[in-house]
Fold this sequence. Notes:
Elements: E1 3-4, H1 5-10, H2 13-20, H3 29-35, H4 43-56, H5 59-67, H6 84-92, H7 100-117, H8 130-140, H9 145-167, E2 168-169
Parallel strand pairs: 1-2
Helix pairs in contact: 2-3, 3-4, 7-8
Amino acid sequence: MPHSLDDLNRMDRAAFVAALGAVFEDSPWVAEAAWDRRPFAGKEELRAAMTAIVRESGPERQRALILSHPDLADKATRPANLTAFSQTEQARAGLNELTEEEIQEQRALNRAYRARFGFPFIMAVRFSTRPEILQGMRERVANDPAVEFGRALEEIYKIAGFRLDDLVVG
């Protein structure tokens, strides 16, 4: 349910975390820390604060955040508790409609990516097509691990921005 920024600024910690805890996948600690930085003058200030919290959290917590994300479009390995946000985002990108050939390639790319980097391929897919997503997977599996760790975080920040746009009105 969308909330106004004024409402969010007035919420107690528990209500604030309940409202924004899903912005960063299975990581309500980001919203909890953001509560301490209230009040926010605008949605961009809220977004910047939440992003800064992750940036400041250190590599171990960042890796845990990355690991909280599901593999893209892989129904075989998709957790039963896949968040509503992730389900909707993947469905909007057409990832529930992959051809059998695309499914096989995507599974192979997910496995290769996890083997190389130790975490799932993450891409903000909201405005991407199935071919663009597969091409991104093909290209990024060859990246340097340090570069890809940073890229995964940047994609997470984009995803969080889209989610905030859905949750915060005005």
